[in-house]
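Ticket #607: bound-state structure for 2-deoxy-2-amino glucitol-6-phosphate.
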Amino acid sequence: MVGIFGCILKDGNAAPVVHEALKRLEYRGYDSVGEATIHEGKLYVKKDQGKIDDVHALHNLDDLPGRIGLGHIRWATHGAPMQVNAHPHLDCGGQVAVVQNGIIENYAEIKGELEELGHVFKSKTDTEVVPHLIEEKLRKGLSFIEAVRETLNRLEGSFAVAVIYVKDSDKIICAQKENSLTIGLSENAVYCSSDIPTFLPMTKKTVLVENGELVILSDKDYEIRNFADWSQVVREPKIIDWVPEVAVKEGFPHFMLKEIHVQPACLKRTTRLQEEYLDLMAAFLDRAKELFLVACGTSYHACLAASYMFSKMAFLSTHPVYASEFIEQVGKSVNIDSTILALSQSGETVDTLAAVDYARGRAATILGLTNVVGSTLTRVSRVYICQQAGPEIGVAATKTFTAQLSVLAQLALKLAEKRGKVSHVEIEHFKAKLRQIPDITEKIVQTQGEKVKQIAKKYRDKPYFLFFGRGISSAVALEGTLKLLETNQIPSMACSSGEMKDGVVNLVQPGYPMIFICPKDDTYKKVYADIMEMKARGASVIAIIEEGDEQIKALADDYIEVMKDVPEFLCPIQCIIPLQLFAYYMAVERGLDPDRPRHLTKAVTVK
Ligand code: AGP
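RESOLUTION: The complex was predicted; output attached.
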């Protein structure tokens, strides 16, 4: 996730306005920054790797001439954070500048075609195809607007772009496909931005740009068109009355709640990973003689879930290991035949990196899954995949967990296909279900929030909780516990309900709160029996059930519904959402700030 911004002022220089706006967008990404302006028929660009203040100290981002400008703040997805990969990107002639947020899925194909026509690319980004394609169309005699429109119609993926052109220097053309883009209008300027808060100090008058729309912005006006059929869209501006602090959270009271709610959009991005990365990683996994899944905290829970996915779908057995235990537990057995798949949202967790370092020292193959391109993990991995969740601000991992699960599920599917372990019909069915995951999670987020809030109200004074699941859901139980521990400091624990009789059963008293995760998979009957047993001892059961599961509804004290007919390997993605919401609403009910748990930091980078 990155942020884009553009403005046309009636008077004065755009660069300081762009610079200020980018500072407000910094929460969306912060590995590189760049600006472009046009003045007297010439394009001016400043960009570099680094945080905005550091780049400004080096290059003075306020010092570019011209009243029209674009800006970009980057969180790398294609190409490492380096000056050459920072936006804006230009065409060969240095006349078209483009900033983009999102992913252009068919960039490799377009790039190949343009290179054959003599275009020279400087970066490793997907974005750079856009200015070159526009240039190609301009060369053929198309107007600026036509060239942008034709270019947009060629792009696949999900994106928001803004473009300026030296020979038509009184306009910005911006557009979005399945990505956020808003327009701001004031007496003295017009703006386009990835979000409303960016221009809120300048104006509250905004127009939302919808999917598939292109906007021609001039200092006087804005014209919206559908870029596929060129039909005109009439949309009146609205007045936004958010205060800036609320606006960054897009109207949500906390980042944690916002990040729970943006999961469907993140999952849409994550389910559009480039096939070649998945293929490459799957090839390494397939060859692995011995595979360790290594991580800490939430990322470890994703490893645990992956161990079930890989085994059940691709018949690949793995060893999920806590990074902090890796050297002690298995270190001496690691050798040239070992493969380590390390998971780390931040890519900087010290224990994960120590495990990786140790394994590298013993000639093992290192694969990485992270949310931060350019992090240490990406630098030490033979192959890595970026999970495309965008920066996560809440300390409690939410959207990055479901994004990890989605990547791992895709890898399991690839591997199953490669190994011929699942029939063609099943593969196609699973792929279709994977594509539905953003909608499935959207439905849960939209329909279950209020119910979870009421349950949190009811249980807010309970001094402890137990979480149970079986099979792949035992990873969900562990993650649910971690969310509650992090945000509420309530003693709680999780275990496979198969282990209940080995001790936990001793804790049960009337009213003891127990949360069971009960998808209708192979474990369902056993979980049902486990609940019966706990109910017989007076426990209060909150069950996460599939829609319409009357059997458990009749047994449980409270229930939250997820969608039915979701395959087992995808179920953790939907089942964790009610537990994230539960932890969130419990914190709110108990007067705690879920975004700032005491004693915790986002990434544990020191021992
Ligand atoms: C999860 O909510 C926590 N923030 C924490 O457990 C985290 O998952 C762990 O520290 C690992 O972080 P990483 O994924 O950045 O390596």
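RESOLUTION NOTES: The pocket of 2-deoxy-2-amino glucitol-6-phosphate is lined by residues 296-299, 344-346, 349, 352, 395-397, 486, 602-604 (CB under 6 Å).
TICKET STATUS: resolved
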